[in-house]
């Protein structure tokens, strides 16, 4: 495994989520099909919401499909969300589980069943695990068996309460966390009180049911909330209602006013629960209708291993990549499901959502595993969510740097990902509301820790192509070997920053921005990143690796770094990345092993045999050691109080035999596979034929079998002391573990150790138990890279990176066009070569009056590019410095880029939505005090810095800052004035140029809506773009249309130009029509068409396409023929660049 090993004595069970459902397809254009990969998804809320993982999820989805007459809706709600069931719901659950069991006796039988075309299983092991749970659900417990089940159930609930109390988000004191309150956003105040009360109700009664009589009938423990292991604890933040969008009933006509004016707490809570149930039933109905076109495949296993196995399947066709399914079980991950055997299952994806996996696994591990699976398309999107904890003020750039273990632009370029919200300083989600939820009386204290949940958005970078139609993809990056080594070394020291104990007090990133303590790395993870980079770059690889090795081993001040150096060498070798001398030359150069002190000479041969591993002919340079830890040695771990410590990080070690007055050599290993079971062997010891098999003990920590720990070691160290070298298993050192275990385990925190000649407990094999190969990290496939000769016909394109050796980050990039076309060569001889900026990451190179080439960088670059022309050698180079996180200020229009793909406009940073699916905010409610949240909500679209610009008369440092402030201000004005919260309700807005007084754009709002997925508001409106050709046609109609309830929004040229850049995205996001073949965007190759005054800037494909009675203004039928529908929402700042405005700031 690529994650650090830990004792899973305690694990948390997440049967229901505690964050609102995400819309997985919001970056996919309407009508497009999508393959979606959900890594780490524990429940179905986002799957259902999108269409409007494990045994309980398949069971619920199958119930939804079967419930065509909707007779079982209430029972399904109870089965999925309530801890106790009535007889009807329990009977339904049991009968459905029995049905699924009968249909799934084999993988082929399941495939042929009524559900086989809707649900699949990636491997037979998942089907086996799911069937085990279905059997558990179908049991009819009676007598002592029922009593035992009830005791187990009640014990699980008590544990959840205890662990919640220990972590401060406590069901015991019934205090919900920010997570549980996020579902009411953007509404606040009263809805927050309701959400908190309902959270308390659930943890008091284990049900969302408010009627005590109905609850009294539900006395049967729900097996859907248990696992077969009593060490799995129902998570203390779980809240059935938190997964829904609870703002809806507070703003909708018919319920909003009643909810907000009623003084009856019970009535208000009942209405909120009813709204959640209604949304669930709507999701179910939508999924049922669309299920014939949806195939959901399930895998129970490690997300990182699954991703690398998919990569391996894609690049080699093989169904296993040498990884285990989970970190604590012996079975290998083999994609033997029928869709993988037949090749019909997708291996690249339009959407990848890793949910909150980054809270538990190092983010760079996740991104390295997931990036190669993202399809090369402009709309393809990878989402990663992480909780960032900080103290006091935060500097956004450091957040993203900390997440990717280095300089964000540098690492993202290596990953082949483009953090679009970071570069545009424009985000979907409003974090200001969440910040307000976080605040408490101690929040002004610099030592007060606050939490911010970031949902990062990654796209494929744009590569060159026709000026009117760029494509997403990858271009190989060229590096000088020393430069690349420095970049990798920075990632290394950032990954293992916590090892630098003496630097902790002064380190800003570590002290201010903390990801949860579980997020750690081990050397195998770093090696996997290095292997990923190897497939991404062109470089003198051996030289780069030699330099990197010298940098790593040269860190004599960090003891842990040297103790783990051999594990790094091992994984570089077995992953096929690079074989160091320490691995391959130990026989001829034993001094490479850095042995301190003497080692006792091993015994010589007897009768030509040594009787130890030296008898192994052609012994591999790396072998797997498996240590058997007797059950009684584990009691010290089982007896520990883990309520505050959580998981226990562990390590293995290989060291020299202890000798008086001699420091034994030692190497630590954190990449361990742990499993419980009984060992059996096959073949002859100390030969390639010797194999180890493990018969798993399903009871794990609560069973009776020994613990088996396997890890790879370099053979050279084994041969030093082939009999008496010590193999150990213990707990990783930290302040917490030392305090808890020092007195019981000693300074080394060793749980158990043995020597190599203890053949009953120490096993040496070529590969890990149950594996027939080393694990692999394939990375990108060859087809992911754009052919250098195909970027622009007639040229060969290359991209090189230059690194600042002090900061260890990419400082500049050089795009080079080698001219291969004879025609272009002739042109180059005496023409003027020019460059122009198409966007902050795209530069156009033009040869005289002839051809133009678009150079797309994978990062934003500075405007002052350098041009180098070699007319004899026939090449042109553009050298550009990598931009900082403030470069967007020079490009105010780079907020919501719209690219043309096959002549069709495609949003890059603007989420798509269906206006009719967004609940309407009651217009009567919007202007009352009950909607006081609206103004602060839209106002928080301006960051603290932008608010400061509002307060001063002088302009910002860059014109782009002022343009964005005006743009955001104008949107705020429209929401506030249309809501009627000012003197009167405004029904028509004119976007006017304050320089010439002309009205250039008319905005006619129809309704304010809630964007549920992004927890913000949307102005459903018509856009009437006035230009020289249109104005004469509508000039007689406009005066009477806008004479009443009209408001002029005055903007300067830059801000008005920004509106013209963003309106195509606002229109495209809610499009329900198709673009014509003669669409103006396609024929001109531009979006927008222009920003010049008096010229049309939108295409006319959607003109006149409105629902009936869309606008309440005079002459609407005539005007609507020239207008197009749009969905305008506030433009929020990105947390990596700006900070939230607080009233005290």
What does this structure look like?
With 1145 residues, this protein is an alpha+beta fold. The chain is 33% helix and 20% strand. It contains 40 helices and 41 strands. A six-stranded mixed sheet has the order 18-16-28-29-34-33. Helix 2 crosses helix 13 (265-290), helix 21 (481-495) crosses helix 24 (541-553) and helix 23 (523-534) crosses helix 26. The longest helix is centred in the N-terminal third of the chain and has 26 residues, at 265-290. The model is unreliable at 440-449 and 501-519 (pLDDT under 50).
Short description:
By secondary structure, the chain is of the alpha+beta class. Helix content is 33%, strand content 20%.
| Side-by-side strand order of the widest sheet | 18-16-28-29-34-33
| N- to C-terminal distance | 46 Å
Q: Cα-atom Rg, whole angstroms?
A: 31 Å
List unreliable stretches of 5+ residues: 440-449, 501-519
Major β-sheet, in short? 6 strands, mixed
Q: Indicate the proportion of strand residues.
A: 15-25%
Helix content: 25-40%
Number of helices: 40
Mean pLDDT: 85
Shape from CA axes?
globular
The secondary structure category is alpha+beta
Instruction: List how many beta strands DSSP finds.
Output: 41
């Amino acid at each position: 495994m690529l994650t650090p090993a830990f004792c899973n004595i305690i694990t948390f069970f997440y049967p229901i989520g505690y964050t609102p459902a995400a819309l997985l397809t919001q970056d996919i254009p309407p009508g497009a099909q999508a393959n979606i990969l959900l890594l780490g998804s524990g429940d179905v809320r986002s799957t259902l919401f999108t269409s409007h993982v494990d045994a309980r999820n398949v069971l619920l989805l199958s119930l939804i499909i079967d419930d065509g007459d909707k007779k079982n809706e209430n029972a399904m709600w109870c089965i999925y969300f309530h801890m106790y069931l009535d007889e009807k719901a329990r009977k339904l659950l049991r009968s459905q589980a029995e049905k699924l069991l009968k249909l799934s006796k084999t993988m082929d039988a399941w495939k042929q069943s009524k559900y086989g075309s809707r649900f699949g299983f990636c491997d037979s092991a998942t089907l086996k695990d799911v069937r085990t749970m279905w059997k558990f659900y179908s049991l009819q417990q009676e007598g002592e068996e029922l009593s035992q089940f009830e005791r187990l159930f009640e014990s699980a609930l008590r544990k959840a309460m205890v662990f919640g109390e220990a972590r401060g988000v406590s069901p015991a004191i019934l205090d919900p966390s920010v997570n549980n309150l996020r579902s009411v956003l953007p509404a606040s105040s009263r809805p927050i009180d309701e959400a908190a009360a309902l959270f308390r109700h659930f943890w008091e009664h284990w049900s969302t049911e408010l009627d005590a009589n109905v609850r009294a009938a539900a006395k049967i423990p729900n097996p859907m909330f248990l696992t077969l292991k009593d060490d799995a604890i129902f998570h203390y933040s779980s809240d059935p209602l938190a997964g829904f969008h609870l703002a809806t009933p507070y703003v909708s006509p018919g319920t909003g006013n009643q909810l907000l004016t009623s003084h009856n707490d019970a009535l208000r809570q009942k209405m909120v629960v009813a709204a959640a149930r209604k949304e669930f039933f709507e999701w179910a109905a939508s999924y049922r209708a669309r299920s014939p076109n949806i195939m959901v495949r399930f895998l129970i296993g490690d997300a990182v291993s699954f991703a690398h196995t998919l990569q391996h399947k894609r690049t080699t066709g093989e169904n296993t990549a040498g990884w285990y399914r989970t970190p604590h079980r012996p079975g290998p991950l083999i994609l033997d499901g029928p869709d993988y055997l037949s090749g019909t299952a997708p291996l690249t994806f339009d959407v990848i959502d890793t949910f909150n996996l980054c809270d538990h696994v190092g983010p760079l591990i996740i991104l390295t595993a997931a990036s190669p699976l993202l399809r090369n398309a402009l709309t393809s999107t990878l989402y990663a969510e992480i909780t960032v904890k900080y103290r006091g003020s935060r500097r956004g750039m450091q957040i993203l740097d900390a997440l990717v273990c280095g300089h964000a632009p540098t690492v993202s370029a290596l990953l082949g990902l483009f953090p679009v919200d970071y570069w545009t300083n424009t985000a979907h989600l409003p974090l200001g509301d969440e910040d307000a939820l976080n605040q408490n009386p101690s929040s002004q204290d610099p030592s007060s820790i606050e939490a911010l949940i970031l949902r990062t958005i990654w796209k494929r970078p744009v590569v060159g192509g026709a000026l009117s139609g760029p494509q997403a993809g990858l271009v190989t990056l060229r590096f000088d070997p020393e430069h690349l080594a420095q970049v990798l070394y920075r990632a290394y020291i950032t990954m293992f920053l916590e090892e630098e104990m003496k630097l902790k007090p002064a380190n800003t990133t570590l002290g201010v921005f903390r990801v949860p303590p579980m997020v750690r790395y081990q050397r195998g993870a770093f090696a996997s990143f290095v292997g990923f980079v190897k497939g991404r770059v062109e470089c003198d690889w051996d030289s780069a690796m030699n330099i990197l090795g010298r940098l790593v081993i040269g860190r004599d001040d960090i003891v842990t770094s040297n103790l783990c150096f051999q594990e790094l060498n091992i994984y570089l070798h077995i992953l096929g990345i690079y074989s160091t001398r320490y691995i391959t030359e130990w026989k001829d150069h034993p001094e490479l092993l850095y042995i301190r002190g003497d080692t006792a000479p091993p015994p010589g041969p007897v009768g030509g045999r040594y009787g130890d591993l030296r008898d192994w002919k052609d012994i591999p340079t790396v072998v797997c050691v498996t240590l058997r830890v007797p059950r009684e040695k584990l009691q010290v771990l089982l007896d520990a109080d883990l309520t505050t410590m959580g998981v226990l990080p562990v390590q293995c070690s290989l060291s020299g035999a202890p000798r008086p007055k001699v420091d034994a050599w030692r190497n630590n290993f954190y990449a361990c596979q742990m499993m419980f079971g009984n060992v059996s062997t096959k073949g002859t010891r100390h030969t390639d034929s010797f194999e180890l098999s493990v018969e798993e003990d399903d009871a794990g920590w609560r069973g009776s079998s020994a613990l088996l720990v396997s890890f790879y070691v370099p053979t050279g160290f084994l041969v030093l002391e082939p009999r008496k070298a010590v193999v150990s298993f213990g707990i990783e050192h930290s302040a917490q573990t030392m305090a808890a275990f020092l007195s019981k385990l000693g300074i080394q925190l060793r749980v158990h150790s043995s020597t190599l000649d203890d053949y009953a407990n120490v096993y040496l094999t070529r590969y890990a138990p149950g594996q027939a190969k080393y694990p692999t990290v394939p990375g990108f496939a060859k087809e992911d890279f754009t052919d250098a000769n195909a970027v622009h016909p007639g040229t060969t394109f290359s991209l090189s990176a230059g690194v600042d050796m002090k900061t260890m980050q990419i400082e500049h990039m050089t795009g080079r066009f080698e001219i291969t076309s004879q025609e272009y060569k002739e042109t180059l001889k005496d023409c003027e070569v020019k460059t122009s900026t198409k966007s902050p990451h795209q530069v156009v190179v033009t040869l005289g009056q002839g051809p133009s080439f678009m150079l797309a960088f994978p990062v934003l670059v500075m405007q002052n590019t350098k041009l180098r022309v070699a007319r004899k050698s026939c090449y042109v180079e553009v050298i550009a410095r990598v931009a900082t996180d403030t470069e967007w200020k020079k490009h105010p229009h780079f907020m919501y880029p719209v690219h043309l793909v096959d002549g069709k406009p495609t949003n890059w940073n603007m989420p798509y939505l269906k206006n009719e699916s967004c609940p309407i905010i009651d217009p009567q409610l919007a202007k009352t005090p009950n909607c006081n949240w609206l103004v602060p909500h839209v106002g928080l679209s301006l960051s603290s810095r932008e608010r400061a610009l509002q307060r001063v008369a002088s302009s910002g440092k860059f014109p782009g800052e002022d343009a964005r402030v005006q743009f955001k201000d104008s949107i705020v004005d429209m929401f506030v004035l249309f809501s009627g919260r000012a003197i009167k309700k405004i029904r028509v807005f004119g976007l006017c140029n304050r320089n010439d007084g002309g009205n250039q754009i008319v905005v006619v709002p129809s309704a304010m809506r809630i964007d549920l997925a992004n927890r913000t508001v949307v102005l459903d409106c018509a856009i009437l773009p006035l230009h020289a050709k249109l104005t004469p046609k509508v000039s007689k109609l406009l005066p009477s249309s806008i004479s009443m309830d009209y408001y002029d929004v005055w903007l300067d040229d830059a801000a008005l130009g920004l509106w013209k850049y963003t309106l195509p995205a606002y229109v495209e996001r809610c499009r329900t029509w198709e673009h014509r073949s003669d669409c103006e965007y396609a024929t001109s190759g531009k979006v927008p068409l222009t920003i010049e005054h008096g010229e049309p800037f939108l295409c006319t494909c959607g003109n006149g396409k409105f629902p009936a009675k869309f606008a309440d203004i005079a002459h609407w039928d005539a005007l609507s023929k020239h207008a197009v529908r749009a969905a305008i929402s506030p433009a929020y700042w990105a947390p990596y660049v700006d900070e939230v405005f607080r009233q005290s700031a």
